[in-house]
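dude i think i finally got it to work??
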Amino acid sequence: MNKPLVGALLSLLLIGAAAAPAVASAPQDKAAAAVTVNFAGTVALSNCSGSVVRTPNSQPNDPALVLSNGHCLETGFPAPGEVVKDQPSSRSFTLLNGAGSRVGTLRASKIAYATMTDTDISIYQLTKTYAQIQSQYGIGALTLNDAHPVQGSAIKVVSGYWKRTYSCNVDGFAYRLKEGEWTWKDSVRYTSSCNTIGGTSGSPVIDTTTGKVVAVNNTGNEDGERCTDNNPCEVDESGNVTVRQGINYAQETYIIVPCIGAGNKIDLNRAGCVLPKP
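look at this
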């Protein structure tokens, strides 16, 4: 995994980690090739990155949601097969504006959903609504795309923790991605220029054409090892294993959308929801 960070690791990774925001041009016509992608709506956790997200149907007065990785939970890694749902949490998140500057602190009311089975996600429900965040900080939520990401599409991985962006393309998809005890389905594989590091875990992966979140950054093969911690391997439908040292991955987020109902409530029984159940 793109490891969550602890204090001893910070000084090692700070070298060369600071970078100016990567901001694309933002033409307004329908033929525009890209939209502005910056840090607005991203958050920094104590050990990871994340973002304030909404579904296409979320309403301004719904409690806002923060998306990160399951392995970024303050309670530790969920075990294989484990699902966390509606667990109280008062975790805080540093909210960033477009330039990557801190504009405020958001707080969770609960872990609405988290797992490392089939995918690697955590969804926190906040104490504020989208309308309150917009009014107080002038920051809107990022929208989760409700369609599968497309091979070859241009993306940016935007890390609120490091205030750093990575630009690359969707190289393809791993049928199964296995890392240590965990296995994830249909993972996004980046082209090599998205060389993400520890602390970028949970970063939104944003399609630069739509500006929508298509995945959440979570891991990469660091040492060329086969299917070990921090060295995920790809497994195809026939069981063949491929190791790609230095290549990084993300978990698709379109599967989250059908599982969120009215009031931003996580409802695993909704039609089309395939997220693992407790």
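The two ends are 23 Å apart (CA to CA).
im so relieved honestly
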